[in-house]
TrEMBL record:
Any one GO molecular function term: oxidoreductase activity
Family: Belongs to the nitroreductase family.
Keyword vocabulary terms for this entry: Flavoprotein, FMN, NAD, NADP, Oxidoreductase
SUPFAM superfamilies found in the cross-reference section: FMN-dependent nitroreductase-like
Annotated organism of origin: Larkinella knui
CDD domains reported in the protein's UniProt record: YdjA-like
Pfam families, alphabetized: Nitroreductase
Protein name: Nitroreductase
Oxidoreductase in keyword set: yes
Ranges where the Nitroreductase domain occurs: 12-170
Cofactor(s), names only, from the UniProt record: FMN
């Protein structure tokens, strides 16, 4: 029987970005998505500000997001640089997903600096990613250049900020080894005065 340590070690080390072209047509049930989001809620948060917020697009809602992203690309790309292929890809990757979450953060400038809120949101996303991995759901966090426009699309106020999109779908992607430099190159030990 696998211990809790062996299980979490395996999940952390096997988590990967899995992109919409690898997603299947199988829909992620709402209760599975709710479980993934519920685990985000247990991320560490300074002063318990819990800044993470998620707007979840699924089913017919995906078309609304896909159309917005594609049209935003068309509106903000000079005609000479516009690519019909990129326009279609922008729509397609949303529609290939079972759901797409817009990740936002609620700022509390009177309590903590913005970077701490972003760190808490990143921890929440990592909790979702690890949960998705454990449930065999592929996911990836995208940070497109139109985050401000996404904020306007969602009617965010001045104390809220969009920090990306979290694409999810069941998949058939083959496991890939992690590409990481040795941890010894990233650690300094101080064991004496």
């Amino acid at each position: 029987m696998e211990t809790a340590f062996e299980t979490i070690n395996h999940i952390i080390r096997s988590r990967r970005s899995i992109f919409p072209p690898d997603y299947t047509d199988q829909q992620i049930p709402r209760d599975v998505i709710e479980t993934i989001v519920a685990n985000a809620n247990f991320a560490p948060t300074h002063r318990l500000t819990q800044p993470w917020r998620f707007t979840i697009f699924r089913e017919k809602g995906l078309f609304r997001l896909a159309d917005f992203l594609a049209e935003n690309y068309r509106l903000h790309t000079p005609p000479a640089a516009f690519s019909e292929g990129k326009y279609e890809t922008t729509r397609t990757k949303v529609l290939q997903s079972s759901c797409v979450m817009v990740i936002t953060m609620q700022l509390h400038p009177d309590k903590v600096p913005e970077w701490e809120e972003l760190a808490a949101v990143a921890c929440a996303v990592q909790n979702m990613w690890l949960t998705a991995t454990a449930l065999n759901v592929g996911a990836y966090w995208s940070t497109p250049g139109n985050l401000e426009a996404l904020g306007e699309f969602l009617n965010l106020n001045s104390s809220q900020k969009c920090v990306g999109l979290f694409y999810m779908g069941y998949h058939n992607a083959k496991a890939k080894p992690a590409i990481r430099k040795p941890i010894e190159e990233k650690v300094t030990w101080v064991e004496e005065n």
